[in-house]
């Protein structure tokens, strides 16, 4: 099993690292990280396909509905365009959809 960990938010780095380490320790999966430059939603989806990832773990900024409408949501785009399961990590205390 290969997992692609995506993190563009500094406050999620430790949380995501812990999630990946727990998964690794429990099932001995191969965890890969990669630094790419470009539009995040396209580059993340491209990297998932290139690595043949079995799982994508991605953070959410938890923008409100108005900001999300204008800025778009990278995590939403990726969850609808990659061909593997996606885990979206929301900020603590986020009660939005």
Automatic annotation (TrEMBL):
CDD domains: USP_At3g01520-like. Residues 28-90 form the UspA domain. InterPro entries: Rossmann-like_a/b/a_fold, Universal_stress_UspA, UspA. It holds the Pfam family Usp. It comes from the Eukaryota. This is UspA domain-containing protein. It comes from Brassica cretica (Mustard).
């Amino acid at each position: 099993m290969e997992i692609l960990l995506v993190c563009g938010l500094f406050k999620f780095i430790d949380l995501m690292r812990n999630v990946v380490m727990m998964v690794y320790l429990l099932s001995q999966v191969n965890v890969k990280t990669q630094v790419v430059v470009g539009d995040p939603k396209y580059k993340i989806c491209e990297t998932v396909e290139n690595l043949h990832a079995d799982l994508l773990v991605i953070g959410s900024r938890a923008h409100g509905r108005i900001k999300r409408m204008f800025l778009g949501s990278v995590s939403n785009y990726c969850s609808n365009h990659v061909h593997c399961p996606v885990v979206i990590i929301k900020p603590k205390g986020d009660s939005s959809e």
